[in-house]
Design goal:
Largest sheet: 6 strands, parallel
Order of helices and strands: HEHEHEHEHEEEEHHHHHHHHHH
Bound molecules: zinc ion
Number of helices: 15
Strand order of the largest sheet: 1-8-5-4-2-3
Number of domains: 2
Strand content: 5-15%
Structural class: alpha/beta
Distance between the termini: 61 Å
CATH architecture of the largest domain: Up-down Bundle
CATH class of the largest domain: Mainly Alpha
CATH topology of the largest domain: Dehydroquinate synthase-like, alpha domain
Number of strands: 8
Length: 362
């Protein structure tokens, strides 16, 4: 058996995943299931009021479970290190880190959990990107984005009641991040065809199917409707899972993400990750259609418009010149990840035509 097993990939999947109204109530049961005695609660200043306080109360009610609560103000490795130093002198070991908040809090929670060898329980208060379930933590250091591998959650408690009250801009961003998977997997296929990269259709399907489902309902998309909100959250969690299963961000990050990373590196605009990626998706889908005749950039753009997410550079504070510069810069980001940018090496003029035709920048 051992001989055969070496040819399979062993992956760690979360055991408890809940996406519904009132999911927070499930936390005491988790404490019992994992026999949690000492836990760390990480939350943000705002998210403490929204959900952190409630989680704290639920833990408090569980006699026998000690906890320490930290309010994360800035998401960085330094913050994670400070927390790790503070808990070092405490009683025994911690069994779990409960991250209650948005991407920033969860990123710190992933690192602290990983370094203290504790279980990670993700309790997201918004759904702005697929980081709510992925093992990757993203930080900004000296103004530049970095991404490091940390812990994957053993449980994800997504309370739809809380998520529904999160800023709608963040939900729109989450949708941008989710539909980018459609074009990112096309990039992956290019890697498979042109440079003989590995491929896994199961992972690719997990990445793209939720986006396809939402896109089918483009006409009526509205994240105030819990039916669509649940689909969005499910999709983002599956996106994180796809990263976890494949081992890298390949199934959810290609050329559209390179464009977003370029904007981050250059410090242009004021878009969120999902807004930048959403616009990047329109651009790269157009390019795929232009070079290989596959895709439907108009439908993707239409769906973004439908939920009132930005579809033009101007809406995220970027000029046409800056968008062009970012696209040229994107070609130099992580060249080992094969995408349409490596396959076609589009010129500045090619990008300019794309920006004009798609209406991203005129
Ligand atoms: Zn992303």
């Amino acid at each position: 058996m051992a001989m055969i097993l070496k040819h399979f990939k062993q992956i760690l999947l979360p055991v408890d995943v809940r996406i519904h109204k009132g999911a927070t109530k499930y936390i005491p049961k988790l404490v019992r299931r994992y026999d949690l005695r000492n836990v760390i609660i990480l939350t943000g200043p705002k998210t403490y009021r929204i959900a952190g306080k409630r989680v704290e109360e639920l833990i408090k009610e569980n006699n026998g479970c000690n906890y320490r609560l930290f309010i994360v103000k800035t998401a960085s490795r330094v913050t994670a290190r400070k927390i790790e130093q503070e808990i070092r002198g405490d009683f025994g070991e911690y069994d779990a880190v409960l991250g209650v908040g948005g991407g920033k809090v969860l990123d710190v929670a992933k690192v602290v959990a990983s370094h203290s060898n504790a279980l990670l329980i993700s309790i997201p208060t918004n759904a702005a990107h697929d980081g709510i379930a992925s093992p990757l933590a993203s930080f900004k250091e000296k103004g530049l984005p970095i991404s490091i591998k940390a812990s994957s959650p053993v449980a994800i408690i997504a309370d739809v009641e809380i998520l529904r009250k999160s800023p709608v801009r963040l939900l729109r961003s989450g949708y941008g991040d989710l539909i980018s998977n459609l074009v990112e997997v096309k990039d992956w296929m290019l890697g498979v065809e042109k440079i003989d990269e590995d491929y896994d259709e199961i992972v690719a399907s997990i990445s793209t199917m939720p986006a396809m489902l939402l896109l089918k309902s483009a006409d009526e998309l509205d994240f105030r409707d819990s039916k669509y909100l649940k689909l969005l959250v499910r999709g983002l969690i599956l996106g994180g899972l796809a990263i976890n299963m494949y081992g890298t961000s390949r199934p959810v990050s290609g050329s559209a993400h390179k464009f977003s990373h370029a904007l981050d590196y250059l410090g242009y605009g004021r878009g969120t990750h999902g807004e930048q990626v959403g616009i990047g998706t329109i651009i790269m889908e157009y390019m795929h259609q232009h070079y290989y005749g596959e895709g439907d950039w108009e439908l993707l753009k239409y769906s973004l418009e439908k939920i009132l997410a930005p579809t033009t550079a101007r809406e995220i504070g970027i000029t046409k010149k800056q968008a062009l510069e970012a696209l040229m810069y994107a070609k130099n980001i992580r060249k080992s990840r094969y995408t349409i940018l490596e396959d076609q090496n589009p010129s500045k003029r090619d990008f300019e035509i794309c920006l004009e035709k798609t209406g991203v920048a005129r």
